[in-house]
Amino acid sequence: MDLEEIKDKLKDIMEKNRYEHACRVSSVAEQIAEYYNLPIKSVKISGLIHDCAKDYSDSHMKSLIKKYNIRLNEVERHIPKIWHAYVGAEMAKEVFQIEDQEIVDAVKYHSTASVKLGLIGKIVYIADKIEPDRNLTKIKKLWPLVYKDIDLAMLELLDQELEYLISKRLVVHPDTIGARNKIIIEKGY
Ligand SMILES: [Fe+2]
Ligand SMILES: [Fe+2]
Q: Helix, strand, or coil here: 39?
């Protein structure tokens, strides 16, 4: 599927606001990918489709989880807001005919993060949170860091996410902790 076909399909399945968010994430991801010399098309596609399943109703989401035979563990069953990432990864393969595992993983782990995230996945995770509509001062401060040290930018965002989850006393997915630990251990921050 080329980019225009993907966009047409997304317009069918996403609400207008969400589709616009996807386009902004895709273009932010593209900017970062250019800087890091990554395959632009893969990054743009990952950004475009990352939330492809997010507008489905609860019942439709549950039927897709069943259809794709996605086995949610106990923690995942407690975090419905991450389900769209797992369903989206299956749709990437089935609906958008993506064979590149790095794109599939970028979609699958854009919500929780994971030790499995490659550079494309990290860029999508970051772009999702710093796209221009997210106008917070602490987010704006992250922009220069993305170009200076992408892992440190990722770590900042993971810290913010964990602080939020803890402040609201919400369940934390182990993949989020794993992603954060990996960066600290490997980079020695
Ligand atoms: Fe999402
Ligand atoms: Fe998103």
A: coil
